[in-house]
């Protein structure tokens, strides 16, 4: 009996071996199932059945089979994780891979793929690095392409630049490298790499004569879409739209690529071309896309669709899209759009509660700056429960918003230059106008406290920070304008100390130092005059000027440059030989002959004489005849100017065109007394009427003369 059982197992394994060699996966499943029915502990049969189920893409059946045999599942950790990965159970796959061996290259490569799909690009990058170091096979180019894809995703979606020093040979790797530089903002280099990737792809595809034109276009579609995105970023939206439309018309099999192109078309259309945008939204909303796109891509697409519905006043559709986004994550953009929708519906209280609930759930550095600033804007413009004003904010609202920002913003935001200037403006507004809620000195105390706390925050971070230098300069100028001379002097002293400590740029900082010293003198002059006089001695400009230069500058300041020339004019009479010369040349000659100790005056007299232009008289000049007084007047101001005449023959007749009733009442000829006419045929004084021919000749003559 035992020999019969052993014979059956051996023959079954023999048949299983033949099925594996022939890759008959259905037969493998049947044979291995029979073996496991009689001998449930057979590891090889269990492994063969798991691999056959994976090869036939029966992932659900495979996972159920693994769950029914937990003991043997420990021998197929990689296969179980791969099945969970294909079923888009990424969290379970990552947990399963934790029990795999650390040196297993297959497990590490699958772990990198799982991290990549989950959006943890830094962890995927580390796994791929270790796999590349420890692998020596023919798949190094494929792994380099995957490594470049991970770095590209990190730069595009997380704005983080990973260390990448590769030179891929495959067109997939070159395409990923172009995406990496695109995420870094180097659009010119990315465009060059895309061209290189397209040329390499065309060269590779030309080696296969069996490929059709549709298959070639499908391989080139990602490169073309990415080039269209560069055009869209560079504001060349019409060209980008044409490329997107051509890719969509080709109907590629990659639904994720078509969804990206359709989403970008919706962004180009905005609130125009509504019919086309609706078709593209439908294309970007097909089933299964949530497993082929990154979470950042899905969120952006849903928000763009919600924005389209918001612009077209489809509030229910907009709400549905935003609800889908907020169920997956607390997206600040989705929250802002939801608040805008509530404000549009006059539900300001609900909008405020929505933004406040976000701030209560998120703390510290995780707070997005747009949410508290939007909440501050709503409270600042709020006039009543369901109405926002457009004019100047009320002082009471300004004070409340300034205090609210101090309470809800984290330290790195509350001390940023933009928020600091906003708080200062709000405190000044709280003490302005007839409805002021506090006095100007109280507002200045709060402003001084804000400035001191901000400067102290950046001093702790390090005085070499550029923002700190910028704040010192602007705060000192503001405090000087507002009369806070003591604090302004302290800030200027700190700025001077920073400049003196920087020895490497001493020449560049010398001019800046003089400006700061001048400001410091101005500040000291308001509360400590002796110290201001002492500080004046450090100004280099006073040391570089001689006593004569100072006198010249004072004279120029008092009288001006033109008055200084007149003061230097001599009192002696001019030479008779200079009588025929112009007055200008006489003054220059006398100034040059007069000794002067004033170097400023000497500088004026040392000018070179200009060459006198030759007098050119008009052709019709007559000596002794008075020229026309209109000669020096503009043409339109001359007495004989009559303006440009226009041809009025074709001008429409103005005024009433019909006969007016009651015309006789206004006719003076009717109301005037009638004159008796003699019955004889004597000639009267009536002028002779001009004939039609004469009128035409007169009109022609006028037209010719114009």
Quickly describe the structure.
With 706 residues, this protein is an all-alpha fold. 66% of the residues lie in helices and 1% in strands. Among the domains are: 1-75, Tetratricopeptide repeat domain (Serine Threonine Protein Phosphatase 5, Tetratricopeptide repeat); 546-571, no CATH class.
Mind telling me which CATH architecture of the domain at 1-75 this is? Alpha Horseshoe
Q: What's the shape?
A: extended
What count of helical segments does DSSP give? 36
Question: Within the largest sheet, what's the order of strands?
Answer: 1-2
Provide the CATH superfamily of the domain at 1-75. Answer: Tetratricopeptide repeat domain
The portion of residues forming beta strands comes to under 5%
Span of the ends, CA to CA: 134 Å
Strands, total number: 2
**Structural class, judged by helices and strands?**
mainly alpha
Mean pLDDT over the full residue set: 78
Rg measurement, Å: 45 Å
For the sheet with most strands, the description reads: 2 strands, antiparallel
Unreliable runs: 1-7, 556-605, 657-706
Protein name: Signal recognition particle subunit SRP72
Biased composition (Polar residues): 588-605, 683-694
Coiled coil: 482-509
Organism: Schistosoma margrebowiei
Explain how this protein is built.
The protein has 706 residues and is mainly alpha-helical. Among the domains are: 1-75, Alpha Horseshoe (Serine Threonine Protein Phosphatase 5, Tetratricopeptide repeat); 546-571, no CATH class. It contains 36 helices and two strands. A two-stranded antiparallel sheet has the order 1-2. The radius of gyration is 45 Å and the shape is extended. The termini are far apart. Mean pLDDT is 78; it is low at 1-7, 556-605 and 657-706.
